[in-house]
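Protocol step 4 of 5: obtain the predicted structure for the target chain.
Materials: sequence only (see below). No template structures provided, no constraints applied. The aim of this step is simply to have a reference model before the mutagenesis design in step 5. Sequence pasted as it appears in the construct record:
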Amino acid sequence: MAEEVILLDFWPSPFGMRARIALREKGVHFDLREEEILSNKSPLLLQMNPIHKKIPVLIHNGKPVCESQIIVQYIDETWGPESPLLPSDPYERACARFWADYVDKKILPGGLAAWRSTGEDQEAGKKEFIEGLKVMEGELGDKAYFGGERFGFLDVSLIPFYSWFYAIETLNGCSIGEECPKLVGWAKRCMQRESVAKSLPNQHKVYDLMSGSRKKLQAQ
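Step 4 output (C-alpha cells):
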C-alpha cells in the first residue's frame, strides 16, 4: 500500500517551509495543499488541527502531526535514516534543539515586530531580529552548516527566515548582509540545495505581502 503524505501549508509561512525542506531532503513525495488561512481555512485543516487551527500540518496515512519543529523531527525519524537531520550524539542533538527553540523565541518575534510595527516598536523589533541573527552567526562560526559539513536540523529551522531578509531590510532601512556577512553566506550556501531552493518563495514576493499587510495594519 502506497504511503499518503499531505502537507497543509501557506506559501509565506517559515514554519511550512521547514516541513517542505525536510520532506524534500528525505526524498519524500507529498501532496502540497495551500490553505487560505487569512480568509477561509479548509475543513481538513480544522479537522486535523482542531486545537490551534494553524498550518503546517503533516498528514501521514491519515494521521496528523502539528507544529513545525515536531513535524521536522517526525520526518527525520520516519524517513531516510541514512541521511539524518538531527545529530546522533545526544548532547549535540540537545544543542540543536536548544538553538532551534532560540530561533522561534528570539528571531521570530523580532522579525514580526520589525515587519508589523512602527516607531520605537519597529526599531526595537529590528534590533532584536538582527541581534538574534548575530548570535546565530556566532554559533555558526566558520562552519559550512550549523552541524559542521552536513546540512541538518538547525539549518532547516533557521533558513526559512532568509526569505524575510529583503523585506526586513527594505521596510527598516538596514543591511543584514553588512551586519551578518557570514550568516548571509551560509544562507546562500543553503539556497544551492534543491530542497531549500524549491521551498523558499521569492523574497520580492514576500516583500509585497509584508508591505501590503503592514499598510493594512497601520490603517486600522
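Step 4 remarks: Residues 90-116 form the longest helix (27 residues). DSSP finds eleven helices and four strands in the chain.
Proceed to step 5.
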